[in-house]
Amino acid sequence: MKKTCLLILFITSLVVSCAKKTISERFFDVEKPDLMFGGMIKSANPFQIEGENGKRYIREKGGVGGINIKIPELEKLYGANQIVTDSTKAILIIDFPLNKIIGYEIENKNGFNKKDLTIELSKVYSEIYTQKHKYGICCDNLEDLELTNILVFEVGKQIYLETKVESKK
Asked: Tell me: the pLDDT tens digits for 79-101?
């Protein structure tokens, strides 16, 4: 009986420890100098909308818009299948419009292309916006945010994906 109870306890703890973390459980605070010093930029990846002519969309007011985070139009994402990093694990760095910088652990056995990262960021920002007060968000609405670029940093053996998000307002 004692062995059975221990076995059940062991199996339960194994199942609980193997459970996938929720989005908010994968957040952690990041200090910007950790990335900037000792890291090497591997690539810069613009996230833009494809116009009807198959080229990057240019706004009438000027500038190239990014892809909307709340409702990304993935079919219009320019170079959607372009690989951003072939690393299977990375940390997304998110700072706008938050009052602090947070990291978010991601994993994909095939690496990450633009489409994968856009979907992941859409989920993350949706979760962040359910707790706006916690992150000091007051003036920017989720539907106004656009992903414009991701910088890929390598620090040691860790890959960081620094997101560049702007408000289209």
From this structure: 999 999 999 999 999 999 999 99
Query: With 0-12 CB in 10 A as exposed, 13-18 as middle and 19+ as buried, what is 10?
Result: exposed
What is the CB-side half-sphere exposure of residue 15 using CA atoms within 13 A? Answer: 6
CA 19 to chain centre: 21
Structure tokens at 151: 């910088």
The CA-atom distances, in angstroms, between 48 and each of 133, 142, 153, 156 are 30, 18, 20, 30
Q: State pTM to two decimals.
A: 0.80
Alpha carbons 11 and 13: distance in angstroms, whole number: 5
Neighbouring residues of 46: CB distance < 8 A, sequence distance ≥ 6:
64, 78, 148, 149
Compute φ and ψ for 136, nearest 5 degrees.
Answer: 70, 30
